[in-house]
Amino acid sequence: MKREQRFRWVLRAINHYFTFFLLVAFVITCCMLLFLSVLRAELGITLTDDNISAAAKLTFLNVVLISLLLTVADALRRRYTVARPVRHIAAAVEKMVQGDFSVRVKPVSRLVSDDRFNEIISCINQMAEELSGVETLRTDFVANVSHEMKTPLAVMQNYGTLLQTPGLSEEKRMEYAKAVTTASRRLSDMMTNILKLNRLENQQIYPKEEFYDLGEQLCECLLPYEQVWEEREIEIDTDLADEVLVFADRELLSLVWNNLLSNAFKFTERGGRITLSLATEGAYAVVRVRDTGCGMTAEVGAHIFEKFYQGDRSRATQGNGLGLALVKRVVDILQGEIGVESTLGEGTTFTVKIKRSMDEAKEPR
């Protein structure tokens, strides 16, 4: 490989030399012909064959020497203004190919190199920074998925082993089987949410927007929790404006309402209250889901839309930290807005704004 590179370098040097040789020979020849023509015309000097032969030989030597000097100067120029920056850039890219995204290329001096190299270097450094962030997210994602899968799998394994115990009573057998079913359902739900979130983040789900009554959809999403609020004596307050039409994807928005209501019931203690309201504010339909649950700190609130984040670890077995990430992504896709207000020990309010008209829904944000 080194011999081949050396051979190519020699060929390039010869090529550059002959390029300069032809250029210098042409320029000097033209200058000499013009000079001799002026001498004959103005001074009447007659040149002999010996004079012309000596001048030609001297001129040829000058052309060879000047071409050599220009070739060396050009080689040095290329070495410091082109080859060195390219070598640094290539070395950095090679490290990135090997998975090292911490590498950064130092900008080159504008005095010795073309500033366009700095534009390339800036883009490469930005790309390395973005790839580093993506790699961190990927690593965290894999670690979180592994951690979240470990718990239900361990539960299934342990209770599956207990089910094999000889002489197990029917009551215990049903209890252990129910625990295995619950853990498997949790694992299945997590995989479903991961796939949904992945499709949403990679824009493989395209909204099927239509006009529909948002109040009716909210009622439909609330009704399945009737048994929950009756068993736990949770008070339900609804304040839904009539005939609030939105231009959105019905199925995607149902994910939002189901996740928000599920969280509200999960964190509201027995005898608490959940309030569901729908109103219009200008071009928006505004949905608020308020509960009187445990609430959360400002630090927890700043991370709740992150994947696998669970602020209350005591409730971790009831979820996998993907619901609110799904909610945030759906709202972003539908060009809406979502916010959260919470007070520790008093409760939490989620506010979702969805554009109502077709024209406003398609405006660029």
Description:
- It is a single chain.
- This protein has 365 residues and is of the alpha+beta class.
- It folds into three domains: 2-100, no CATH class; 144-201, Helix Hairpins (Orthogonal Bundle), CATH 1.10.287; 209-361, Histidine kinase-like ATPase, C-terminal domain (Heat Shock Protein 90, 2-Layer Sandwich).
- Helix content is 61%, strand content 13%.
- The protein has ten helices and seven strands.
- The strands form two sheets. A five-stranded mixed sheet has the order 2-4-5-7-6. A two-stranded antiparallel sheet has the order 1-3.
- Helix 2 runs parallel beside helix 3, helix 3 runs antiparallel to helix 4 (170-201) and helix 4 runs parallel beside helix 9.
- The radius of gyration is 38 Å and the shape is elongated.
- The chain starts with a helix and ends with a helix.
SSE map:
Layout: H1 2-43, H2 49-97, H3 116-163, H4 170-201, E1 209-213, H5 214-222, H6 226-231, E2 235-240, E3 245-249, H7 250-267, E4 273-281, E5 284-291, H8 298-301, H9 323-333, E6 337-343, E7 347-355, H10 358-361
Parallel strand pairs: 2-4
Antiparallel strand pairs: 1-3, 4-5, 5-7, 6-7
Helix pairs in contact: 1-2, 2-3, 3-4, 4-9, 5-7, 7-9
